[in-house]
Amino acid sequence: MVAANGITLHVQRLDPVDGPDDDRAGPRPTVVLIHGMASDTMASWYFTMAEPLVRAGFPTVLYDLRGHGRSTRPATGYTLDDLVDDLAALLAELAVTGPLLLFGNSFGGTIAFAYAARHRERVVGIVAVESAPPIPEWMRRVAVRFDRVATRLAQEPALAEIGARRGPIAARRAADTGRMLADTSLARELPASRLPSTGALAAIDCPVLCLYGGRSAVGELAGPVRELLPQTRVVVLPDEKHSVLIDVPQTVRRHVFDWLTEQCGLVTTTPATP
User: Fold this and answer.
1) Residue 168, Cβ neighbours under 10 Å: how many?
2) From CA 34, how far away is CA 114, in angstroms rounded?
3) How far is CA 29 from the centre of its chain?
4) How confident is the model at residue 24 (pLDDT cuts 50, 70, 90)?
5) pLDDT interval class at 18 (50, 70, 90)
C-alpha cells in the first residue's frame, strides 16, 4: 500500500530477476499497467500481461485506481485530472524516474493518454486495449455506459441474474461496482472532467498501439484516434468483445510484443506461456 496524492493505493511492483535475454536490448522502460473503470482492478493485467513483461526484462508496476480493488475509496475526487495526479504521485513515491511504457485497458488507456499529454517527455509508448484518448465522443460514451450500469445494478434481480449467467465471482464484482457508483461521485465527475486540449493530445509523439474487439462499438473510435495520432497502429480482433484482454490474452501478448520490437525498437520476443 502506497500513500500518494492524499489517498492510499494498492500497488504491485514486479522487477525482473535477470536482464533481457538479448544483450542488445539495454535497460528497459518501466511498464505501468492501468486497469479500467468501475468493474475492473489490476488483476486483469496481473493475470494476462504482467508476468510475460517481467520475464522479458521490463520492470512493471500495477495498481488499483482510487475507489477500486484495495485502494482507498473516497466519496469524491474522480476527475481525469485526479486520476492522472494519482499516477504521477505514485511514480514519484516509487522513485520511478526513467522512461515509461503505459498500458491501459478500457478507461485505463484514457488515463495513459492524459498522462502522456501532460508528461510527453517521459512516455516512450502507449498500449490501449478497447480505449481512446480523452476526446469528447469517448467521454460521452463513458457517461452513457455509467448510466446504464448504475440503472441496471439498482434493480433487485440484477445481481442474481449476473450470478446465474456468469458465476458468483462476477456477481460479487457487480455488487461492488453498484456500491461504488452509489457511494461515490465517480459517475458524475468523470464524464464531466476537464479534458486535455486537442493540441496537447496531438503532440504525443511516441508509438501507440490500439487493440479493439471486432464486436465492440469502441472500435468505431479507431478513425478519430488515427486522425489525432497518425502514428497509431490499430489492430482489430474479429469476433471479440470489449473483454478482449481477458478473453484472448495470448493474442494480445503476441501483438504487443511484435509492436514493442517493430515500433518501439525494443529487441524482444513473445515469452512462451508456462
Assistant:
1) 10
2) 12
3) 17
4) very low
5) low
Quote the cell numbers at residue 75: 466519496
Three-state DSSP state, 98: coil
CA 222 to chain centre: 17
pLDDT of residue 22: 45
Between the alpha carbon of residue 7 and those of residues 67, 75, 149, 202, the distances in Å are: 10, 12, 26, 31
Per-residue burial over 105-120, b = 16 or more CB atoms within 10 Å of its CB, e = otherwise: bbbbbbbbbbbbbbee
Does the predicted TM-score (pTM) go above 0.90? yes
Distances (CA, A) of 92 to 6, 87, 115: 13, 9, 14
- Angle among Cα 142, 143, 145 to the nearest 5 degrees reads 65
Which band of pLDDT confidence, cut at 50, 70 and 90, is reported for residue 73? very high
Distances (CA, A) of 186 to 67, 87, 139, 253: 9, 17, 13, 31
C-beta neighbour count of 154 within 10 angstroms:
11
Task: Indicate the DSSP class of residue 36.
Answer: -
Q: What is the pLDDT of residues 171-180, one digit of tens each?
A: 787 788 888 8
- Non-local (6+) Cβ contacts of 217 within 8 A are 141
